[in-house]
Design brief:
Structural class: alpha+beta
Largest sheet: 5 strands, antiparallel
Distance between the termini: 19 Å
Bound molecules: zinc ion
Strand content: 35-45%
Strand order of the largest sheet: 1-8-3-5-6
CATH architecture: Sandwich
Radius of gyration: 15 Å
Length: 132
């Protein structure tokens, strides 16, 4: 298993980590298989979406803010209930196929680390499974 460190710089942020994950694959001899990406945090997530237009992640953050307002009478004493809810909406993991040693992603797809309670230093775990 590989561990990526992601340093976020603001409260809400989507960071394209596709390149870092591709670099993990280059350290392995895997040709065909599966890459699993897991975020071990309760106020962060990982998602796959467009990485061509930088306005897409900005819009997604704004959309999530409308779905889950920052303050809405939540009970959680730590004060970051909205971050927990956003993390669960997007999820803690993604699975991407590997073919010829490369991630199989659509032309416009990238893998984003999603920060909802930053800035923090975060960990992303990456494992690969060889296809038989
Ligand atoms: Zn909390």
């Amino acid at each position: 298993m590989h561990t990526l460190t992601v340093k976020t710089t603001s409260q809400f942020e989507m960071i394209d980590i596709t390149r870092q994950i591709s670099e993990v694959l280059q350290k392995e001899t895997i040709r065909d298989g599966i890459c699993h990406i897991f975020v071990a945090h309760t106020t962060a997530a990982v998602t796959i979406n467009e990485n061509a237009d930088p306005d897409v992640p900005k819009d997604m953050i704004a959309i999530l803010d409308r779905i889950v307002p920052l303050q809405a009478g939540y009970r959680h004493g730590e004060g970051n209930a909205a971050a927990h809810a956003k993390a669960s909406l997007l999820g803690a993991s993604e699975t991407v196929f590997i073919a010829d040693g490369r991630l199989v992603l659509g032309t416009w797809q990238g893998i984003f680390f999603c920060e909802f309670d930053g800035p923090r230093t975060r960990k992303v775990f990456v494992t690969t499974i060889v296809a038989s």
